[in-house]
Design goal:
It is elongated, with a radius of gyration of 31 Å. The protein is mostly helical. The longest helix has 32 residues. A two-stranded antiparallel ribbon has the order 1-2.
Length: 269
Amino acid sequence: MKKLSARRRHPLAAVVVLLLALAATGGLYAAFAPAGKAQADETAQSLAIEEGKKLYTVGCASCHGTGGQGTTDGPSLVGVGSAAVDFQVGTGRMPAQQPGAQVPKKKNIYSQAEIDQLAAYIASLGAGPITPTEKQYSPEGADIAKGGDLFRTNCAQCHNFTGEGGALTHGKYAPSLEGVSEKHIYEAMQTGPQNMPSFPDTTLPEKEKKDIIAYIKTVNGDETATPGGFALGGLGPVSEGLFGWIFGLGSLIAVAVWVAAHTAKAKKS
């Protein structure tokens, strides 16, 4: 007992106990951890990257280079992230049909599974914005009024007050946001495609992105009626006043001319 008591008082006794506890914890974790699932996920990711590389070689490498390094016909894709791929390919903008001031949206030629594979390969080239989950971009519970304030501050200069789009310089334009999915709107804010600036979470937090999406979906929804019958670009009193001035005053002038012409004709007869 005296020997055991002396060993307990040894300066290294606490270190030995700690090492034994760590070894026991590590052994238990190795025994019960879902290693099979982790290995399966890693294998699935590797297969997705491999398949994505094949798709990239066929549909993208001619413009963006064999390793995504970019060429004179297309920018580098290193570091753009999976979100940029999901947006560009999912909206049909990529692969581009022809060069121009701006690549338009069109029917996409890839399935979602193929888009995911392409995104996995591009993400493997360098870290970048990750494809958002439904929880991130769902507008459920968002503040629509705040979203309107944020949209008018950050987006309306190009996309119009209700997201109907507008012209920019040198043949470029801000596309209409009507009918665009919540995920693609979120990804556009994440990645800043073409002429649009990017709004990372450090600039525009996830909650504010959801507020903006909720506002866009509200003003462009089928249930949103236009009291006057015509949206007139959603510009408000400016376009409405111009419409009233041109057509309202124009109609009054036309009536005045018609009355004057018929009055003169009546006097002659």
